[in-house]
Amino acid sequence: MKRLLVGMVVMLWCLSGWGAGVVEQTDLAFADAAAQSSAGNAKTGNSGQGGGDNSGQGGEDPGPVVTEPSSWSLFFYLAIDNELEAAGDLSLANMLEATAGLEYHPRILVLVDRLSTQGTDVFEIVGGEQDSVVSYDEQVSSDPAVLQNFVTMALDGYASDMNALIIKSEGFSWRGTCRDNTHPGQDTDTLMSTGGMAEALIAAQVATGTSMDMLLLEASCMGFIEVVYELRDAVDLLLTTETKIQPNGGIPWPMILEDMAQDGDISPVDLGVVISDNHRDYWEDKGNHGDPGADTYADFSSMSVLDMTKMGAVLAAHNDYCDTIVPLFEELRNVLPHARDLSEIGGYGSITDFAYQHDIVTFQDAALMIIEQKGRSYPELEAAITDYQAAHYDMVLYNVYADKFHDKTQALSIWYPPTYNKYDTTDPVGDVTFGSTIFYEDPDIALDWIVDSNWLWYLDEYFRALYNYNAHRQDWSTD
Fold it and tell me: N vs C: which end of the chain shows fewer Cβ within 10 Å?
């Protein structure tokens, strides 16, 4: 993210008398989620409310629903000029069907950019009908300017007391999202960087003087610390997932809209809990479960609700943790690769094709477990991990995952390639898929995490220690 632009935006906001922060602070305190959570705010269990066919997301008919006027606006940015076009259209059909049966529902504004047709449309969903707002010539939905214009329009003319932006598209972790397949003047598909997204959202809120109360990334595998850090100044409350958003339905909006209709003034955090629970409950009883013909990956649902105002403390604690563990690499070089393997999220059924995605907390816990099994003790490392996890769980307001994950998904992954050859994606090895050759240090992405954290130093020292370990093993084998 371009620091100069963000700094200027923050300065303009402050001078305009809109408050000291980029986004007006939201009261993130709530009682129920903390009481329901266990062991580091992680919640699991199987209380599936969905069942049945993947396309219909209403679950069993509970009878008449008592609704009340809503204090919410939901803004959907459907960047489906890609392979997820059918998934986006299914989400739209589900929302149309759901709102048709509700006397009251949130105000819903949608931008959709499809693959199969030229043009980009903006419309409202009102009582099961689409009311056209404006139609544009073909827009490049991976362009942050398109997102900024839509959010500015939404906040300026369609805002309510509380407002949420939902970005639905393909997710490529730290590489970006909103893949666009049809874009005049471009030879290759394009992605929106997370920094570009953050700048667009900040600028739209500054231009309108209206804040967003929630950002939901309805895109697979965006729960990376690199992504979350990039968005730290754009919104106070973020919902994202370390795992897969199902293309055959995605987030079960009919269930969520029905819950919102019964509590028109639901708080942002409580809405985050409702979205997370419904997403987990709907999907975790799907999947093949012994039927090879069924979708193997459907029950890998997880969702996290993050207090973005705590991201600075998480960065500081993670840097301290790296400062503590790196000097121990020579002693831990036969420990850390095993811990890394145990923390892999993408290893479940190849949810990701090329992202080395490892849950931070699970890696730390696995490392301590292996160290203990080897009869060793590193009190300073244990203290640094305790401090990091305290900051981590202070930011993670709520976290749910399917039983299949046990407690492996604890809200934040990090890019952790096994070797330097895998890190250096400018020289790809093996099959090349879209995004696999995007370099971690690409200046077009310009990840703030790379500048502000010491993770590159960690990786460099890790690869060095691993290389020395493997070289020594080869020497021993020839003795």
Answer: C
